[in-house]
Amino acid sequence: MSSPVPPQTLEDGQHERVQSSFNDVKVEEKPDTPEIIEALDATKISNSDTLSALSDADNPLFIPNLTYTQAEEAKIIRILDTRLFPWVLLTTFVLNMDRTNLSNAVSDNLPEDLGFTTDTVNLGTAIYSVLFSLACLSGAVVCKIVHPARWIPFSMFCWGLVTMSHALIQNRGGFLTVIAVTEGGVIPATLIYLGSFYRSTELATRLAWFWGVQNIASAVSGLMASGLLQLQGVSGLEGWKWLFLVDGIITVIVAVLTWYEFYLPRNAALTKGGIRGLKPWFDARQVRIAVTRIVRDDPSKRLYEQHVHWADVKDAVTDLGLWGHLLITAVGLTPTSPLGVYLPSVIKTFNFSVFVANALTAPPYILQCCTSVLFIWHSDKVRERGFHGVFGATWQLVGWILLRCLPSDASKGVKQVLYIAALIVACWPYTHPLNIAWMSENTGSIGKRTLASGSVIFAANIYGVWGSQIYQAKDAPEYHTGNTINIIFAATAVCLWFGQKLYYNRQNAKNKRVWKRLGDAERKKEEMEVENKGNNSVLFTFTS
Question: The domain 70-508 is classified under which CATH number: 1.10.260.40, 3.90.1150.10, 3.40.190.10, 1.20.1250.20?
């Protein structure tokens, strides 16, 4: 739950603040009862001797033999879900509101106002994707140095200024320059941050909300755009410039409030002060439970603030499972690139006005939030990932087939059918958070997981380089060729989800065979090295 903090990493005065929180509360250990949650109930590494051997000298908040009830743990999760997680959702809401406004601006004749075509928009989107992706890789590493509670609000403040600067664009060159300054790095930092507060079995559903709120932000952005774009001519500014200005101002305000001294806590022991309240969220015992339950879920999180090492880089590069997740991301999300940029424009071709077209982008995004959360909640409930991913990818495939094969006549009655087809495509159960949670569960050390988080967000944006070229001006307005390409990518994604599940099942079977062949001395050695080996250990069980 909290990022376990080694004493030597605490800033001046923080160690005293942490220690004083324990001095204020008398900690009473609970007696053993049938409700006690034992260490191995949630951990993926099934060896109690290994877990008990972990030293609490590195992290005084981790108590190896601590016992606690389900009610105590549920209370901690409830506090996190009502105090911490909503603010994290606010940051991602603002992020996607700023990222979606480009599609709204394009529908308001941004290209024509600046003197370029759809192809220039595609080029700008490709540049954006490259720089955003690179920032994701570097941002994941940097946030481990400066801490996510600092990096997230700092990044928000920067992209808020960049969003406002879009109102200064005067020509094609300005468009390409400003759009290249991106928000990259904040998403992997958020994934790392949430992983320090939630167990792996709790993360997928919350990631579904994380990306689901992005869909709601896209819906709100569409509704805001339908109003703000009507400010055309006020103070001599185009409507789309007003859109960028308002979104940017909102972002800067939220960024300042998010700074770790005001709201976003560094860890569970430092939740007092700022706009968080005069009292800490947790008492001393709850802080210990918060940290201990996370370490029991994944022993490598005992030193959650450790930095990335070259050994982690080598381990990540040679992990075939990680490459599978990156392929699923880059291929499966490619069709969302043209849809995200041109959805209002596509709806506009169904003979709707620009204001109605932007408003009609709201229902698909809201529906996708609902389908995604329910879809991933069920995946968490049954503890299955692969077939759920296949289901989501198949839904998207069916939607693209409908959009490609339906008649393109925009006469009365037909345009409603076309809108329904676009609705099906846009509200598919978003598989990206499921893929990230699956990857996180099956990744080893903290350093490797940090690189994996940056890499998967890299893949989730680099596809924009080729995805942005799918819809070409010569293919408008029906985009038959583009939709055919989307069908190919969606079908490939279905196969990749199947392949990833098969790979993990085979790895589990292989580990069982190797374990059976080991002698007692070899088994003891493997148990002692399990934390360092992570998912390379034969004791590691992959989620499939």
Answer: 1.20.1250.20
